[in-house]
Amino acid sequence: MDIRFDNKVVQITGAGSGFGQRAALEFGKAGAKLVLSDINQSGLAETMSQLAFGPDRAIAVACDVSNPGEVAAMTKAGIDHFGALDIAINNAGIANELVRLCDISLEDFDLMMAVNVRGAFLCMQQQLNQMMVQGSGVIVNVASVAGLIGAPYLAAYAASKHAVIGLTKSAALEYARKNIRINALCPASCHTPMVDQVLQGDKGEKRGQDIANSIPMGRLGSADEIVHGMMWLCSDQNSFTTGQALAFDGGLSAA
């Protein structure tokens, strides 16, 4: 894609794998300065190794996005190091195993909300405070097509992603006149470590095929397809889009 982010400071949570890792590599290629975080420090180190950037281009900060102190410290570290925060990708998230709603434990439900919803909320608070000082900024929250439609056997996950979209739309209206754009990216199932983990087990292959069959295009997406959409959402070429939950889902939400 012919989109550049030269000298833009981009913060990416969940950068140790999946969409976050791919986003770090693609934004890096496009000239961005990166503030990368993940609770998985080994995955974060792997991303940094693939980038092979010096501290003038990228820093890594271990962060549990459900912890307000760690989120504040991570955001401050990036601002102190690079002096700005132009773009934020709130990508950190988890999914539950494929089970019926009645079989989801309270602990698993609470963890889902803590990481996916509380995490996005805490990150946005810190990011918006800095972007208000600067007078500009872009935030993309990685939600899911499960935040737009029902998701059988993923009720807790779907509820969390519906909430992320609610945060996105509400904040977008609050900050539209402050030159801050906020959108949600809503992918269908793609080939990422998180999806592969959900599909593990004896029925994994069949479940994967069932998911592919449920998508009008007949396949799962790729991380590159989602990240290219993410980059378009963040680019100056897309300056009139805010408050949207954009589906990158092979047609799944059109039914």
Short synopsis of the structure:
The chain has 255 residues and is of the alpha/beta class. 46% of the residues lie in helices and 15% in strands.
Structural commentary:
- By secondary structure, this protein is α/β, with parallel strands linked by helices.
- The chain has a single domain (9-188, 223-241), classed as NAD(P)-binding Rossmann-like Domain (Rossmann fold, 3-Layer(aba) Sandwich), CATH 3.40.50.720.
- It is 46% helix and 15% strand.
- The chain has eight helices and seven strands, in the order E-H-E-H-E-H-E-H-E-H-E-H-H-H-E.
- It has a seven-stranded parallel sheet with strand order 3-2-1-4-5-6-7, sandwiched between helices.
- Helix 5 links the parallel strand 5 (137-142) and strand 6 (180-187).
- Helix 1 (18-29) packs parallel to helix 2 (41-51), helix 3 (68-82) packs parallel to helix 4 (106-134) and helix 4 (106-134) packs parallel to helix 5 (155-175).
- The two termini are 29 Å apart.
